[in-house]
Specification:
alpha+beta; Ubiquitin Ligase Nedd4, Chain: W; Chitinase A, domain 3; 4-stranded antiparallel beta sheet; 3-stranded antiparallel beta sheet; globular
């Protein structure tokens, strides 16, 4: 069993992996409570470090995927702010940073990527989207599946290319086209 000091989760909680989605989730064996978002009282920094060490993915195999005609696959790193449509995440139950602070934060990630860091690895520990569990991978999507600004930027990229900062109602994104 994992220790609370290692995971950053409150006493009794542990990280498990879903058999159906192959994603980590949070479980309390005594109460049988399970959830995708960390429980209240979680130390976000300790959880971030634990997830990076034990639950990061280096990409998802595209074999056996069908029905992707007209679709693309992309990953992203999302930084939310207090004006985002849902100012909460797996990392922070209440996001209070301003839009300007979010912009500074995402530009810092953009600089790290320009210096050789991987968007996927940064997304695993830094993204405010639950796709962080998958290195920011959103899977395949088509036209009209995403917010307009996100979709336009993603479809405008070549495979492997990373966007500049894209602002949507969800927050600020860096997007990498995967396929």
């Amino acid at each position: 069993m994992q220790s609370s000091s290692e995971t950053g989760l409150p006493a009794g909680w542990e990280v498990r992996r879903s058999n159906t989605k192959n994603l980590p989730y949070y479980f309390h064996p005594e109460t049988k409570d399970s959830r995708w978002e960390p429980p209240a009282g979680t130390d976000p920094e300790a959880l971030k470090n634990y997830m990076a060490a034990h639950h990061s993915t280096k990409g998802i195999s595209t074999s056996n995927l069908s029905g992707t005609e007209g679709k693309i696959r992309a990953a992203h790193l999302l930084v939310k702010h207090n004006g985002s449509r849902r100012p909460a995440s797996w990392r922070e139950p209440k996001i209070t940073r301003s839009l300007d602070e979010a912009r500074d934060r995402i530009k810092g990630f953009q600089d790290q990527i320009s210096s050789g860091a991987s968007l996927s690895e940064l997304a695993t520990t830094e993204s405010d989207c639950s796709s962080a569990r998958k290195g920011g991978d959103l899977g395949f999507f088509g036209r009209n599946d995403m917010q307009k600004e996100f979709e336009e930027a993603a479809f405008g990229l070549q495979p492997g290319e990373i966007s500049g900062v894209v602002q949507t109602a969800s927050g600020l994104h860096l997007i990498q086209r995967l396929d």
